[in-house]
């Protein structure tokens, strides 16, 4: 018996693969169905339209980031180096492994579409605000309570994600980590000084 929720997840995963490989313009119902190994009619059974399919994929993107950030929070222990914690949590928004690299590429395509699609724009705004909320919480943990500093960190993450996606040969994962580490350990007003090297 087919599990409807699993089938929906399989179709959304197929959207990610198609978009990561060829861009959002390639995420037609026909191409997604072929990627998922299904007939177009089967995809329509779960998603009534192409737009509904893209909306589901965008929401899944937000969910995945939320799950990873929550998992990082659950792994915290008293005495953990707050700078390393901040790096790990912030890293959930960056292309630091193959899965996150694909997600970032997909998300950037969705952002471009969100400029002219109000519904996608709402989801993009949700992730935009969520990133800034996380940035503010991380900085608070470092003794910095400054909305401008939170915006600065969020903008840095946005820029690193974009640069690494467009120029992966020029911005390695080590470079991303080093830039993030440098930013966090040189925050003005931070109450904690890390003795850890770049990671």
UniProtKB/TrEMBL annotation:
Coiled coil: none
Superkingdom of the organism of origin: Bacteria
Lineage of the organism: Bacteria, Bacillati, Actinomycetota, Actinomycetes, Kitasatosporales
InterPro entries xref list: BetI_C, Homeodomain-like_sf, HTH_TetR, Tet_transcr_reg_TetR-rel_C_sf
Record's protein name: DNA-binding transcriptional regulator YbjK
Organism encoding this protein: Streptomyces melanosporofaciens
Molecular functions (GO terms): DNA binding
All copies of domain HTH tetR-type, residue ranges: 5-65
Keywords: DNA-binding, Repressor, Transcription, Transcription regulation
Gene3D superfamilies on file: Tetracycline Repressor, domain 2
Pfam families linked: TetR_C_6, TetR_N
DNA-binding stretch(es), residue numbering of this chain: 28-47
């Amino acid at each position: 018996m087919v599990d409807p929720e699993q089938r929906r997840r399989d179709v959304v995963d197929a959207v990610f693969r198609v978009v990561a490989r060829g861009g959002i313009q390639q995420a037609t119902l026909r191409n997604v169905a072929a990627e998922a190994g299904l007939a177009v009619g089967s995809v329509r059974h779960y998603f009534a339209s192409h737009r509904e399919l893209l909306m589901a994929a965008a929401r899944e993107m937000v969910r995945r980031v939320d799950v990873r950030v929550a998992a990082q929070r659950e792994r915290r222990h008293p005495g953990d180096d707050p700078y390393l914690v901040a790096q790990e949590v912030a890293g959930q928004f960056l292309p630091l492994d193959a899965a996150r690299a694909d997600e970032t590429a997909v998300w950037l395509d969705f952002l471009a579409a969100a400029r002219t699609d109000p519904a996608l724009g709402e989801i993009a705004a949700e992730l935009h605000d969520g990133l800034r909320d996380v940035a503010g919480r991380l900085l608070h943990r470092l003794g910095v309570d400054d909305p401008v500093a939170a915006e600065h960190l969020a903008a840095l993450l946005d820029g690193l994600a974009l640069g690494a996606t467009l120029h992966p040969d020029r911005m390695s994962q080590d470079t991303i980590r080093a830039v993030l580490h440098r930013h966090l350990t040189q925050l003005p007003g931070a109450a904690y000084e890390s003795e850890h090297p770049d990671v």
